[in-house]
């Protein structure tokens, strides 16, 4: 029983004899805790615990809807299939590469945008709004838009190249150029999210610190590295966790821009999972791939959390 | 708080979900038909209107899916995996009935298939059961600019080499930088599977024999090299890896293409008011690899009844109507969709609307089906992404052929 509810003696109020209604209207601490936590606990189990456990369970099954056979326990067979699957390696490598390029890329661009938006503008809302728009746009639209930008015949990128006297480039014919175009689109899309979080962080830094630094004769650069950056570190780490996990799950933009082409050169792990489950209906292998991606995300999150704890930045 | 009221409300919701509130109320039966956006949906709609008029109490609504065969399949896969009953009738690409039947997604239909063209009777009969009925027939053809060939005294080419020579001759004469010699499908879509198979088959090779893989790497290399050669020599445009079926149709219709590989649907639009080439178009058999036979890819779409439909009898009745000779003739005349019945190819009304249909029957009848397997989606993905990679220059034809072989070995054993 609870030790905190000492203001009324238990003997005065035996639980069993209390009317049903008053237990709801005036619950003791334990009941209250259960009532208050129940919605969250139920929601978490239904929305997260159940699907994730089901996914892990399915990853051990031989379950392909095209086989016409019932599901069969297959142990680690789905996972053993991965090392020999060239598309799995290509998609995983692309995913890691996208993460390594677009996470720092969007951090740098987002930081610059946040600093810009933090300047004392007379009218703040147009700046904030333009910062928000790329973030508010659905990912698949962004992919479609950038797909058109880089189209070899109708795209604005080649039009600009032609106007300054350079020849057209068939962006999506080259694995490298296609990949670069995808990274550019992702950085554009993700920078505004980074900028918003960093902007929020910037506004919590007390003005007095800068004024004191001014008095002490610190220049702009020094103020940035000695005040802004250290005080923003927790904010940046949180932004990085979010961004890294979404980068590991990259799907919409390459799916709409290149469909993974040329060939499978720009496919990501999330696209390959989608292809195996939705197109090939191989739910067992698709689930196993998803488990690998889940593990990858957990690993990265753990590393970040360790980083925060190590630096003592966590509150 | 009143938990009684909440439980009543929940009970009501459950009862509603179980009974299907939206449809349960009226005596009218609502059927939802999934139609491919490339299969002339507007013309099917006029037929459905007639059907509604003749069958009081039946209402039919049309749902359009993704723009390519594979996008549509992805959508249907999602709907049917969830055992969703919202779609009653499905228009399916000819490659799908085998897969849908294996998954148990279509209801068998008891009917006699002998009046249909043999290829479609076969494609829709799986393990002795009819799983779908033909909507329209199709195969790939060579569209050409009759006016330009006449101008340079050329005949429709019988081999791909002749086609390249003819394209060169016309290009040299016309000096029009916007005129492409040949347009075909190089994007990683379903059509690119046929792109690969047509010259492969032309060399007398098959992909599967008795359900086993029987792949000829040399013929595959030659097929990939043929298409890559067209892009490299300027007969086709350099960004051919970005071209999908309807791009070919639009560019041909705009007058920018001399030869085009396309399905029958492109004809109706090339003769429409918005076409720059109306009256200047010829249609012929696809050319052969030198020394090989002329081959083409069997297309066409089928009508299936969803196994999850709550209106099985009404849906089957509708499908039987949509697959009838009357409808096939109407679609041939109004939508230039090839008939599924042999006798309609010589029908006077049909040949008056689409003269070249008179010679099309032997082409459709000798068209080859793509490999039939429940795992067709994987076979398709391997072939089309490799065709795309080769045309983009990311892989050589020889490496591409080796990759197709290695990856197909894992799928078809």
UniProtKB/TrEMBL annotation, chain A:
<dbReference type="InterPro" id="IPR035906">
    <property type="entry name" value="MetI-like_sf"/>
</dbReference>
<dbReference type="GO" id="GO:0055085">
    <property type="term" value="P:transmembrane transport"/>
</dbReference>
<feature type="transmembrane region" description="Helical">
    <location>
        <begin position="129"/>
        <end position="150"/>
    </location>
</feature>
<feature type="transmembrane region" description="Helical">
    <location>
        <begin position="95"/>
        <end position="117"/>
    </location>
</feature>
<keyword id="KW-0812">Transmembrane</keyword>
<feature type="domain" description="ABC transmembrane type-1">
    <location>
        <begin position="92"/>
        <end position="304"/>
    </location>
</feature>
<feature type="transmembrane region" description="Helical">
    <location>
        <begin position="30"/>
        <end position="50"/>
    </location>
</feature>
<dbReference type="GO" id="GO:0005886">
    <property type="term" value="C:plasma membrane"/>
</dbReference>
<comment type="similarity">
    <text>Belongs to the binding-protein-dependent transport system permease family.</text>
</comment>
<keyword id="KW-1133">Transmembrane helix</keyword>
<keyword id="KW-0813">Transport</keyword>
<dbReference type="Pfam" id="PF00528">
    <property type="entry name" value="BPD_transp_1"/>
</dbReference>
<protein>
    <submittedName>
        <fullName>Sugar ABC transporter permease</fullName>
    </submittedName>
</protein>
<keyword id="KW-1003">Cell membrane</keyword>
<keyword id="KW-0472">Membrane</keyword>
<dbReference type="InterPro" id="IPR000515">
    <property type="entry name" value="MetI-like"/>
</dbReference>
<feature type="transmembrane region" description="Helical">
    <location>
        <begin position="231"/>
        <end position="251"/>
    </location>
</feature>
<feature type="transmembrane region" description="Helical">
    <location>
        <begin position="285"/>
        <end position="305"/>
    </location>
</feature>
<feature type="transmembrane region" description="Helical">
    <location>
        <begin position="177"/>
        <end position="202"/>
    </location>
</feature>
From TrEMBL, chain B:
<comment type="similarity">
    <text>Belongs to the bacterial solute-binding protein 1 family.</text>
</comment>
<dbReference type="GO" id="GO:0042597">
    <property type="term" value="C:periplasmic space"/>
</dbReference>
<keyword id="KW-0732">Signal</keyword>
<dbReference type="InterPro" id="IPR006059">
    <property type="entry name" value="SBP"/>
</dbReference>
<dbReference type="InterPro" id="IPR050490">
    <property type="entry name" value="Bact_solute-bd_prot1"/>
</dbReference>
<protein>
    <submittedName>
        <fullName>ABC transporter substrate-binding protein</fullName>
    </submittedName>
</protein>
<feature type="signal peptide">
    <location>
        <begin position="1"/>
        <end position="27"/>
    </location>
</feature>
<keyword id="KW-0574">Periplasm</keyword>
<keyword id="KW-0813">Transport</keyword>
<dbReference type="Pfam" id="PF01547">
    <property type="entry name" value="SBP_bac_1"/>
</dbReference>
């Amino acid at each position: 029983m609870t030790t905190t509810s000492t203001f009324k003696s238990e003997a005065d109020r035996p639980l069993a004899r209390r009317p049903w209604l008053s237990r709801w209207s005036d619950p003791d601490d334990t009941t209250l805790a259960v009532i208050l936590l129940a919605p969250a606990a139920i929601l978490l189990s239904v929305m997260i615990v159940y699907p994730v456990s089901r996914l892990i369970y399915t990853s051990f099954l031989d379950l392909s809807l095209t086989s016409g056979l019932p599901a069969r326990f297959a142990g680690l067979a789905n996972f053993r299939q991965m090392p020999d699957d060239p598309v799995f390696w290509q998609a995983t490598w692309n995913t890691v590469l996208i993460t390594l390029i677009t996470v720092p890329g969007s951090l740098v661009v987002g930081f610059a945008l946040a600093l810009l938006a933090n300047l004392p503008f007379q009218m703040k809302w147009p700046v904030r709004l333009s910062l928000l728009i790329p973030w508010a746009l659905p990912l698949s639209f962004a992919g479609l838009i950038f797909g058109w930008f880089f189209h070899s015949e109708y795209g604005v990128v080649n039009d600009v190249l032609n106007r300054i006297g350079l020849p057209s480039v068939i962006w999506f014919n080259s694995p490298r150029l296609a990949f670069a175009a995808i990274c550019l689109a992702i950085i554009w899309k993700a920078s505004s999210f980074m900028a918003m979080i960093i902007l929020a962080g910037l506004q919590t830094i007390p003005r007095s610190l800068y004024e004191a630094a001014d008095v002490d004769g610190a220049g702009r650069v020094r103020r940035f590295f000695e005040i802004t950056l250290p005080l923003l570190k927790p904010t940046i780490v949180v932004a990085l966790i979010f961004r890294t996990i979404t980068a590991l799950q990259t799907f919409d933009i390459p799916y709409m821009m290149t469909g993974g082409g040329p060939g499978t050169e720009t496919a990501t792990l999330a696209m390959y999972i989608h292809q195996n489950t939705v197109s090939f209906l191989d739910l067992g292998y698709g689930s196993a791939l998803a488990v690998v991606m889940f593990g990858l995300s957990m690993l990265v999150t753990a590393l970040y959390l360790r980083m925060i704890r190590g630096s003592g930045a966590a509150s | 708080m009143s938990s009684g009221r909440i439980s009543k409300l929940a009970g009501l919701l459950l009862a509603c979900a179980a009974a299907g509130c939206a449809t349960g109320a009226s005596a009218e039966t609502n059927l939802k038909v999934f139609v491919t956006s490339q299969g002339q949906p507007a013309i099917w709609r006029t037929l459905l209107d007639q059907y509604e008029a003749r069958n009081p109490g039946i209402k039919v609504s049309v749902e359009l899916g993704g723009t390519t065969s594979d996008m549509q399949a992805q959508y249907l896969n999602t709907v049917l995996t969830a055992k969703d009953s919202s779609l009653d009738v499905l228009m399916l690409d000819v490659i799908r009935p085998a897969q849908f039947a294996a998954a148990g997604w279509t209801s068998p239909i008891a009917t006699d298939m002998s009046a249909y063209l043999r290829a479609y009777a076969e494609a829709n009969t799986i393990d002795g059961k009819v799983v779908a009925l033909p909507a329209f027939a199709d195969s790939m053809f060579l569209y050409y600019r009759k006016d330009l060939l006449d101008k340079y005294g050329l005949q429709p080419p019988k081999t791909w080499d002749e086609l390249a020579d003819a394209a060169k001759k016309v290009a040299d004469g016309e000096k029009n930088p916007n005129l492409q010699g040949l347009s075909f499908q190089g994007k990683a879509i379903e059509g690119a599977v046929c792109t690969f198979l047509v010259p492969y088959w032309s060399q007398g090779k098959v992909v599967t024999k008795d359900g086993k893989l029987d792949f000829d790497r040399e013929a595959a290399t030659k097929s990939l090299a043929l298409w890559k050669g067209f892009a490299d020599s300027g007969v086709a445009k350099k960004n051919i890896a970005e071209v999908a079926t309807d791009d070919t149709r639009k560019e041909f219709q705009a007058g920018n293409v001399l030869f085009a590989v396309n399905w029958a649907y492109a004809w109706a639009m090339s003769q429409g008011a918005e076409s720059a080439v109306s009256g200047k178009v010829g249609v012929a058999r696809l050319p052969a690899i030198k020394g090989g036979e002329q081959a083409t890819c069997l297309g066409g779409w089928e009508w299936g009844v969803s196994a999850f439909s709550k209106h099985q009898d009404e849906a089957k009745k509708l499908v039987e109507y949509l697959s009838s000779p009357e409808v096939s003739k109407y679609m041939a005349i109004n939508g230039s969709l090839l008939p599924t019945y042999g006798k309609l190819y010589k029908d006077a009304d049909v040949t008056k609307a689409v003269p070249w249909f008179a010679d099309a029957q032997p082409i459709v009848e000798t068209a080859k089906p793509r490999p039939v397997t429940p795992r067709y989606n994987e076979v398709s993905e391997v072939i089309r992404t490799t065709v795309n990679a080769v045309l983009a220059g990311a892989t050589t034809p020889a490496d591409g052929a080796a990759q197709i072989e290695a990856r197909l070995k894992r799928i078809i054993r």
